[in-house]
């Protein structure tokens, strides 16, 4: 409320072509430092904060916007934690390193992260559905894979997730790097590559059959209702016979 009042006061005194720039400040978590392997250097170590990148996709046989992978990075609190400057690692191991010891707390935070990422993609897809083909970039243009960046913030001594941006390439690179690094240390391979391939192949199959005609014999009953739903999703023209 105080910020809104201050901005309103500034707007009332602005001249033509002037503007007010408002930036949000999010307090970071100031994560604990891991125990040093050698003797600590002189001086107090700088505070650290964490960032999580989530990758989502339109997976066939699953809900739209299902979370595929999560990768986390740690950096110094006074500088943004960017992709490519910190080695990624899994969410559970990151939370343990950051002092979240209880398994229930880690699982609860992972669930909140997944729900927040899927809600972000659902909102983007809903807004995309209202755009015209020209605004989307073409009749067949749509978002199949989306990355959402989150900052691990601290509000009233409680860990909170703050969405920073939506992107695809950077989150994809970070998540693939995290999975590849896990395999080098003996972790079992994840499902990221398979899920990405399923998403891309499903899109290719939809493109191949879009606009085609199919002949449905004996249709019309309630048991065939799934046919109409699938035809709408695949862009098929259904021609019935025998009802």
TrEMBL record:
Q: What is this protein called?
A: CRNS1 synthase
Q: Where is the signal peptide?
A: none
Molecular function via GO: ATP hydrolysis activity; carnosine synthase activity; homocarnosine synthase activity
InterPro entries, per this entry?
Answer: CARNS1 (IPR031046)
Q: What is the name of the gene encoding this protein?
A: Carns1
Q: What is the lineage of its organism?
A: Eukaryota, Metazoa, Chordata, Craniata, Vertebrata
A GO BP entry: carnosine biosynthetic process
